[in-house]
Structure formats: structure tokens, C-alpha cells
Amino acid sequence: MLYESKERIKQSLASHSWLGIAMGAVLYLICLSGTLAVFLHELERWQQPDIEEFSELPASAISRAYQQFMAQINGPQKTVWVILPTADLPRAHVSNGDVERFTNHNGDLKNEPIEGWVGMVRELHYYLHLPKNIGMIVVAIFGVMLIALTVSGVMAHPSILKDAFKFRVSQTYRLQQTDLHNRLSVWGLPFILVITLTGAFIGLVNVLVLAAAPLFYDGDRDAVVSAVYGADPVVITDQRTFNVEKAIGELKRVAPEVTPIYIAFQQPDSEGQFLEIAATLPGRLTFSEIYRFDSEGNFFNHQGLSDGPIGRQIAYSVYRLHFGQFGGFAVKLMYAFMGLALTMACASGINIWLAKRKYKNWHNDVWVGFVWGTPLALSVSAIAAMANPLWATLTFWCVLSLTLTGALYRQDDSRSRVMIKLALGLSLLLIVTVHSAIHGVQSLFVPVWTTHIVASLLGFYWTISAYRKLGVQSVVVPEVTSA
Amino acid sequence: MSNSYSLGMLAIVMGIMSVITMYRHWLNTGAVSSALIQWTPWSLLAVSISAWVMAAGAEFGIVFSSAFFTMTAWFYIVLVNRKQAAQYIYITEEPKERIQQSLSAKRFLRNSSLVFLIIPVACFCSVMLCLAGTSLIPVSETSRLVIAGLLFPLLWSVLILWCCGSKKRWHPALMMFGLASVIVIQYRV
């Protein structure tokens, strides 16, 4: 029934092409950075391998870290967080949102976390390096566009069942790209919808608050946020210290099955101070449940993120669902694989459009420069960030601009592709070399050596395959009109 | 633990079987087949989802089952087309005539202005429609807002598609703006 009207199919295809061509490049950037963002915790460990790692931070160490932190910063604080070690990020740090410090297993403050390359990748995926408020909405708009592309793609594909298992990769370039695009998109439909919808929700919550506040809450935006996520409790106390040990003991009594992930010291040194412990629940997607304690460590309520209104549970589950931060490393691998598939679907969509044209022009050059220039820029910026963490963002955009300019200047997309691939392969090998030279072999723990192995394998593959293609004419299969 | 492990294994096996039977059925598309053959892949998929849910809980189970099904289908497609897939890297585009074409400023400006008009108008309309629509649903205030938050990007994308698919793209934009304005006036007055 969906495909009965030829006019509708034509319209859907036109919309799909129009949107895809307009948004393809930025979607590719968001999807590629999102794929890397799945491993942000592991990459953080790789970026700063000399930070002490441990699986547990005792209550005494938490109190010590908090006291040392408060002694070092001036003025009243709204919230101070002590982020506890977890299985995928076994290191602790203290933060007030502006200042951040790692701690050792005793709770003594140590180095500051480096934003560097990992921060650059995170900011690229979250905000496209734009100012945060605007950037998040812009990224969310691209999420909406991806939903539109998914819907129009399904509506424009009348042979969705007939072609379900077709993969004509050795026929023509156009068919190869078409089948790759369609198979990845159609079978990946549930994942694409979940990722885009959760991503759009995260990015557009502020727009919703902005629209709902004047309509239903007399312009009170905090009231909208409280309605969704729950309001902060009102506490009045004379005490100016926190009994963390008792609070942790109480948590074990109230919710023995949960795993604490951070402790928030709310409004410390004020009469409204209280303690929150956020903890993950086994088998649940909700980011955490937040358990509240008074300054003496007595439990008084929880926020209802895991058992409150169903809407609140959903709203707090979208984060883990979007970033694949649940169920261990296997889920991360699965998310990375699917993210890569979505990235390839974005790239192959534009490839189809280019392959359908009877001529080549600067679009071909720009596209090759962008598609292969982005991973090259990510790779080179990782090297630059090892020299100076502040160079990551600038290097990324400079290298990407250079590859685009180079590809435009050369006016030979095939040759440009090979050259950029060669540079990409070499830069990946250089990452391993430079990292090993700076941090030495003593820091070769699991995330470091797995990153090095993956970078080396990809580096060797791209270097060798590009080097071989430098002097080789590619095989061209003539276009078959009947197909 | 061992029960979860057994259920997980069952879910994996049933998921693989579901893709294989789906492929066998797809190969025979057009041939007369019994209802049993037609429904076998979907039944196996349902068993797989149920087993995932029992092994890992409802939330993890549904995510695992859909992700596993997708990945199995991709691997199976590569597997059944492996002879072709082996030649993948050797294919490239046909040589084409290269033309010098500069960016058409007029076309670029027209399309950009259309994008900058359609996106905010569709956003305004969808957010107002969702907030107004969900206010009629008999659920808690929290759930209403979250449902609106999840529906709003979906509706926004559909409205954008409507604009893109229309021959006169200004018309849907004007209609959306009018509709959203009516909702705002209705609630504010």
C-alpha cells in the first residue's frame, strides 16, 4: 500500500536526494565522530595513560578528595562531584564543572584531566565545534534530517523486500554503492531510528523546554525541567560537613544491587547542603538512579529515575541507549560496528548521486577530499594533540581544509583518494610511534595496546593498499543499462 | 547465571536461524509456499527476542535482539555473496568527462534560503502540534512532555519531507506557520 502511488515514490526519492545531498557531508562528520565517541572512555585512558587506575574508591578517600578539592577552590560551590571508578573507566576524579582533578586511590588530588584530542572528538560529535548552546541544537537538527532521510528512503524504495539480500558488489560501481547503501540502511533501520531519535531528543530538550514553558508553565523553564527529571529537594541543616561513609552504608542497605558511579555534594557549606549518590541498576538502561542523603548520611529519598513516572524513566534512558554505554565492551563494539555502517551509508548515498551523473566536476573532488580527509584530519590532530592538547581542534580543521583544497586543486578524484589514504595510513602508524615515544612501553595497559594494534593494522592496510594503487590502473566494469 | 547463558545461546541460535530461513524464503519469492514456511522466520525471530528478554531483561533484551538480528543479516548477506564480495576492492567508477562548473550563487542562495525557512517553520509547527496534541492524552505530566519530546523530531522530519516533496515549497511552510500560530494563540489567550 505504501508503494502504490508512483508519484509518491518519485516525490520521496526527490526528497531523499535533496536532503541527502544538502546534509550528507555534515551527517558523515557526525556519524564518524559518533562512532569514535563510543570508545571515549577507552580513548581517554589511552590519551592519559599515566593516571593511577583502581576499581574502588573507599568512603574515606572520597571524603579526603572532596576536602582537598574544597580547600583548593574559592567561593561558594553549587555542586562538587566525585566521579567514582567504573569497569570501563577505572579512575576517579573530582569536579565542580569548571575545575577537574584526578585522585589516587587514597583520595589525594593529582593531575588535571586533559581535554586534548578526545575532548575535540567529543565536542565535534556533540556540537560540531560550535558554541555549545547553538551546536547541540544544530547537531540535533541533523538528527532530525537523518530521521527524514530514513523515512523518505523507505518510502522511495519499492523493491525493499525484493532486494533484501542483494549485494551486487562486483558489477558496476553505481550498483555496488547502491546495494551497499540500501543493505546497510534497510537492515540497520532499527538502530538508525533509535540512534537518531535519542540523539534528537538529547539535543532538542532545550527547544521543548523553551516552547513548553510559556504555553503551560507561565514562562518558568525550571518548572518544565523539574516536571521531566524531578525537582531538587529543599533541605535545611546546620551541619557543614558530610558523612560519606554512613551514606554509602545506607545505600548498601536501601539498594544493595546498585553500583555507585558518582557522588554529588550539593550546595556544600550552606544550610541547603545534601548528598546525592548516583548508581547504575543491573539490566536497566536508565543512566542512573539518584539516591539522596542528608549531611549526616541518612537516606531520605530517591529521584525516581528508575521507578518514577514512565516518561522520566524513558527520558533518563536515552543517554545510555544513544552512546552504547551499557552491557559491557561487547555492546560498545556492536555500536561502533553499526555506527560505522551508518557512516558508510551516508558516504555511499552521495557516491550514488555522483555515480549517476554523466560527468565529473568539482563536487567529486570535494567529496573525496572530505570523506577521506576527515579521518586523516582526526588522525593528524591526534598526533598534534600529543605535542600540545590545545592544538587538536585547530589541526583538525586545518588538515580537513588542506585535503579539500588539495583535492580541488588536483582535479583527479581517484588520485586524490589514493594520496589521502596513503597519508591516513602513515599518520596512523605515526600515532603509535609518537605515543610510544612519549609514554614509553610501561604504560601499555589494555586500552593502550588495543588502540595501538587497531591503529597499526589500519595504518598498514591503508599504506600498503594505497601504495600499490599508486601505479596501478583500477578495473572498470562498464555500466549495464538493464540493471 | 547458567540459565541466562543457555537463554542467550538459544537467542543467538534462533536469531541466526531466523535470518537463514528468511533468506531461503526470499530465494523462493514468487513460488507457492505454505503459511508455515512464510511464518517460520518471523516465529524464530519472536523466539529469539523472547529469549533475549528472558536472558538480559526487557530493556537490554530488546536492544540486543534487534542489534544481533541486524548484524547477523549483514554478515549473512556478505557470506552468501562472498564470491562477489571478494572482488569488492577492484571496482571503481567508469572514466567520465570532466566539466568545469562553478558554484551557481543564485541557486545556492535560493536553496539555502529555503532550508533556513523550512527548518525553523517545521520545527515551530511540530513542537506546537506535539505539545498541544499530547496535552489531550490522559497520562502524567512528565510522560506527556517526554512523549512530546520524542514525537516532535519525528513530526518535524515528516513536515520537512512534506515541504521537500511539494512542487511549491512555500505553501506547506505557510500552512505550518498558520497552524502553529493558531495553537499559540489558543493557549496564550
Question: Can you walk through the features of this model?
Answer:
The complex is a heterodimer of chains A (483) and B (189). Chain A is of the alpha+beta class and 483 residues long. Helix content of chain A is 60%, strand content 8%. With 189 residues, chain B is mostly helical. Chain B folds into 2 domains: 86 residues; 89 residues, no CATH class. Chain B is 79% helix and 2% strand. Chain B has 7 helices and 2 strands, in the order ααααββααα. In chain B, α1 crosses α3, α2 crosses α3 and α5 packs antiparallel against α6. The N and C termini of chain B lie far apart (60 Å). The mean pLDDT of chain B is 83. At the A-B interface, α1, α5, α6, α7 and α8 of A face α1, α3, α4, β1 and β2 of B.
- Structural class of the helices, strands and pairings of chain A? alpha+beta
Order of helices and strands of chain B: HHHHEEHHH
Main pleated sheet of chain A: 7 strands, antiparallel
Give the beta-strand count of chain B: 2
Helicity of chain A, in percent? 55-70%
- State the separation between the terminal residues of chain B, measured CA to CA: 60 Å
Name the strands of the widest sheet of chain A in spatial order: 3-2-1-4-5-6-7
- Large-scale geometry of chain B: flat
From the alpha carbons, calculate the radius of gyration of chain B and give it in angstroms.
25 Å
H and E order of chain A: HHHEEEHHHHHHEEEEHHHEHHHHE
Percentage of residues in strands of chain B:
under 5%
Low-confidence stretches of chain A: none
Biggest chain contact: A-B, 86 and 73 residues
